[in-house]
Amino acid sequence: MLFLLLGDEPADLGDRSRLDSRAFRELWSRISAKSCYTVDFDEEELIENSIEELNSRLRVSKVYVRVVRGEQAKDLSSKEQLASGEGFVRTAVSREEASHEAVMKASGSVLYDLVGKLVEETGLTRRAIAAILTGMERAVFDQFGDNPEEFIIRAANIVNEQKATAIIEHIVYDKLTETFTTDIFTEPGLKKGVLGVNAMKAERHLYDHVLYDSANERDFASELEAHGQEVEVYVKLPKGFYISTPVGKYNPDWAIAFREGKVKHVYFVAETKGDMSSLELRKIEEAKTRCAREHFRAISGENVKYDVVDSYEALWDLVRG
Fold this sequence. Notes:
By secondary structure, this protein is an alpha+beta fold. Helices cover 38% and strands 24% of the residues. The chain contains eleven helices and 13 strands. The strands form five sheets. A four-stranded mixed beta sheet has the order 10-11-12-13, sandwiched between helices. Strands 2-1-7 form a three-stranded mixed beta sheet, with no helix packed on it. A two-stranded antiparallel ribbon has the order 3-6. Residues 1-13, 102-110 and 276-280 have low confidence and may be disordered.
């Protein structure tokens, strides 16, 4: 169940009869199928590219120790002053680089399986990760001792970017008989909203209110509402609706049904981005959007169009073309 918070009391988000409307059933029948993917890329090329990028870009910050020096106040007169810290006067603050030995000692209670952790974070084989690590320059690899956790996070991100690049050109999706059910729109405790904060009234949405995650989503929903002569029904897709990709689950923002006769593409799935200039998407985001295009092509052919837009006008240009 979706809830809207009015004051302190939760209220039902509205009439769910649109779940059974012709327009929504038609839309849902075209986008609800699940899919599976296969990827066939050159692992050796991925290993080489990862090594090159890690050597070029992997920089891990050193751990520093903040040292505060002080002395006891001359007018210390009570236990309370001592307990509150008022009994001491700070005389100097310095920042000193922690030694390699100190970092490893501080991390001594944490056992790092570096290969295993990078396998977990990237989905590559242990053989591939071991080859990447042994191929790195010694000075780059030695940064692991400076800051193990940051090393793992940054190294995994760089490897995943290279993996995403390889995936874009080599992924194939196939339609499954399994589908998402409309239960994902009515699951208990799905999401709560506050009118005027992250919720707005709606007439063409699946519910009588739309819950949004950003000002850009709010503005986009307002445009969908305003263009009632073109938009028949739309829905903000819940997190339970996702596409499986090799770089993580992907949850598109919107599914929209336009009025027939007005557009070429009646059924549309959209991802909204507020700043299209940044859409030189990061490689992982780009891989996910490419996967989404392949997924919808596999399950719906040309019946559903998917794209990334920053405004209703950009969307309108796409559905007419």
